[in-house]
Amino acid sequence: MTDRITRHGHAAADHGAPADPHRAPIEGHDAPGGHDAPGGHDAHGGHDKHAGHDPEAFRRQFWIVLVLTVPVVVWSHEVQMWLGYTAPTFPGSEWVAPILGTIVFLYGGRVFLSGARTELGDRQPGMMTLISLAIVVAFVTSWAATLGLFEVEVWWELATLITVMSLGHWLEMRSIMQARGALTALAELLPDEAERITESGRTETVKTADLAMGDVVLVRPGGRVPGDGEVTEGVADVDESMVSGESRPVTKGPGDRVVAGTVAAGGSLRVCVDAVGEETALSGIMRLVAQAQASNSRAQALADRAAAVLFYVALVAGVLTLAAWTLLGDPEEGLLRTATVLVIACPHALGLAIPLVIAISTSLGARNGLLVKDRLALERAKDVEVVIFDKTGTLTRGEPVLSAVAGVSGTSEEELLGLAAAVEADSEHPLARAIVDAARRRGIELPTAANFENLAGRGARAEVDGDAVHVGGPRLLDELGLQLPDELSSVTGTWADSGRTVMTVVREGVVLGALSVEDEIRPESVEAVRRLHGMGIRVAMITGDARSVADSVAERIGIDEVAAQVLPADKAGAVRRFQEGGRKVAMVGDGVNDAPALAQADVGIAIGAGTDVAVESAGIVLVSDDPRDVVGAIELSRASYRKMVQNLVWATGYNAVAIPVAAGVLAPIGFVLPMSIGALVMSISTIVVAANAQLLRGLRLRPALSS
Question: Which residue out of 54, 228, 390, 594 is catalytically annotated?
Answer without folding.
Answer: 390
